[in-house]
Amino acid sequence: MFIRQQLASLRAQGVYEPGKWFVSGFNRKPEALGATLPDHMPKKVVLRDITMRTAEQTPGAVLTPAERLRLLSALVKIGVTSFQVTMGLSRHSGEQMREEIKLIKSLNPNAEIEIGGVTVKESIDRMVALGATCASIQGPANFGISAFYVVIRRIWHGKGRTGANW
């Protein structure tokens, strides 16, 4: 119930109808509905492909290293220029990540390659050593959910809700 209340407090009026849909609040803003773009808007937008990350997070879907390379090759060949190849650095061996990044760069030296979920300096250093070009540093969306996340994480690791380390 707490999380639902937190999410409800963030919703703009008219963007959510219970049992039906959630629509971005930007869909109600005049500047997003066809008005002339202001001067500070970008002239170009690059969409980052998350196929590899989505595949590894899909229950029951397991791509072999060879299948991952084949899929990456196909994505580069159809013109994809920005990739999130994995979420975190523990899902695949360093050698596999290095091979995937090397393949992408051999086909498009200017491709952007992101490793998501980087949270500490050591992860960023490892990501750079593997050849990735950008990181996604992620965390919970707001304080209420952040507090919930910390509690769950501490309980998961056996630290409970009390004690000197809380």
State the low-pLDDT regions, or none: 142-151, 160-166
Q: How are the strands of the biggest sheet laid out side by side?
A: 3-4-5
Q: What's the average pLDDT?
A: 76
Report the CATH superfamily of the domain at 51-136. Answer: Cobalamin-binding domain
* Approximate strand percentage: 5-15%
Radius of gyration: 20 Å
Q: What is the 3D shape? A: globular
Q: What are the secondary-structure elements, in order, as H or E?
A: HEEHHEHEHEH
- What is the helix tally? 6
Number of strands: 5
* Main sheet specs: 3 strands, parallel
Kindly describe this structure.
- The protein is of the alpha/beta class and 166 residues long.
- The protein has six helices and five strands.
- Strand 1 and strand 2 (21-22) form a beta hairpin.
- Helix 3 packs parallel to helix 4 (94-107).
